[in-house]
Automatic annotation (TrEMBL):
Source organism: Streptomyces nojiriensis
SUPFAM superfamilies (alphabetical): Hypothetical protein YwqG
Protein name per its UniProtKB record: DUF1963 domain-containing protein
Lineage: Bacteria, Bacillati, Actinomycetota, Actinomycetes, Kitasatosporales
Domain of life, per lineage: Bacteria
Length: 197
């Protein structure tokens, strides 16, 4: 069953829940990731908590994308390096320090909790709250099926979660008015992010 991730209101920037915006949390010592194309620090988009029964769970997905050169760092690609998805172990995660005082990490303008709720039979939110994404189920591809292969074992990765741009244009992530898809391979500890519009 597809669970929608619904906007559950403002939350602390480092809250240990599924959320969009705020600061990434990761094992101590994790360095803020950079774009492989322009070398700028990636924008942190969201963390998604994957429960014990999730295809790639348990764990936490941390999702990043380059916001320095919109459309020019192949931000849509699961392999080019203009975005990053990390599959982290659940627990013992701490805030990742910004790369340095002058670095502009271009954080989203708002931090919103994303609570999983079963979708209504027609796939919409049962209570009208804004949809921030989805958890498990099948990817709602806007274009062709682009399930990525795992860079570790070369097998197709399991679909883990989807992201929407969010209800607030001034604070939203930029998927070209499209949707993002996060996949993971639990045995290899790898994850991938791509988007379509
Ligand atoms: Zn870049
Ligand atoms: Zn793998």
């Amino acid at each position: 069953m597809t669970m929608l991730l619904l906007d559950d209101g403002p939350v602390a920037p480092d809250a240990a829940v599924s959320r969009t915006g705020g600061v990434p949390t990761a094992p101590a010592g994790t360095v803020w990731p950079v774009c492989r194309l322009c070398a700028g620090p990636l924008q942190f988009l969201a963390q998604i908590v994957l429960g014990d029964t999730a295809p790639a769970g348990p764990g936490v997905l941390a999702l990043f994308m380059c916001a320095h050169r919109p459309g020019r760092c192949e931000q849509w690609s699961p392999t080019a390096g203009g975005n990053l998805a990390l599959l982290l172990p659940a627990g013992d995660l701490v805030s990742v320090p910004a790369p340095d005082a002058d670095a502009d990490v271009l954080g989203l303008g708002a931090v919103r909790a994303a609570v999983p709720v079963p979708a209504a039979p027609d796939g919409t939110a049962p209570d009208g709250r804004p949809v921030l994404g989805s958890l498990g189920g099948e990817p709602d591809w806007l274009q062709d099926d682009e399930t990525p292969d795992c860079p570790g074992c070369a097998r197709p990765m399991a679909y883990a979660a989807g992201l929407r741009e969010g209800p607030e244009p001034t604070t939203a992530m930029n998927f070209g008015s499209g949707r993002a898809y996060a996949h993971a391979c639990a045995p290899c500890g790898r994850a991938a992010l791509l988007w379509q519009c």
